From TrEMBL:
Name of the protein in question: RNLS Renalase
GO MF: oxidoreductase activity, acting on NAD(P)H
Record-linked PANTHER family: RENALASE
GO CC aspect terms: extracellular region
Top-level taxon of the source organism: Eukaryota
Gene expressing this chain: Rnls
Amino acid sequence: VSTVISESQRQQLEAVSYSSRYALGLFYEAGRGIDVPWAMRYISDHPCLRFIALDSRKRNGECPEVGPSVVVHTTVTFGSKHLDSDPSEVQQLILGHLEELVPSLPKPASSKCHKWRYSQVVRAMPDCPGQMILHTQPLLICGGDGFTHSSFDGCLHSAVSLAEAVKSHL
């Protein structure tokens, strides 16, 4: 029985690791104002919250027909601690911390809490090659931030590496 990937490739792929966190989206009805003086806020010293953005303001695209939305990201420590917790309980914890930091935030019309199990690369593929050819017949290549680093530049590097690998097999 032949395998698609080698033992060495499997070990390299298994060595890649990611941080985990939660993202919470709060959605408001059209016309609802949100009274904060910022579009986004990075928080460096909070045990739960790392980033808050008034998404429509951040994108400079507030629209009277569509209500504003707020996006909240937790810290990696909080995400790891609550990785297997009930999402509704996690949402309540995040909302409690958010209310303490931004008490003027109104109650949303709806919300969505998302566990982001693979948030950002902690340990990338050794030497950050951008991609890995798993098999040549048929051509099977994998890539992404796990082969570089979690940033726009890392994703771009991986995309270029993938394109060059495909091009060399045409």
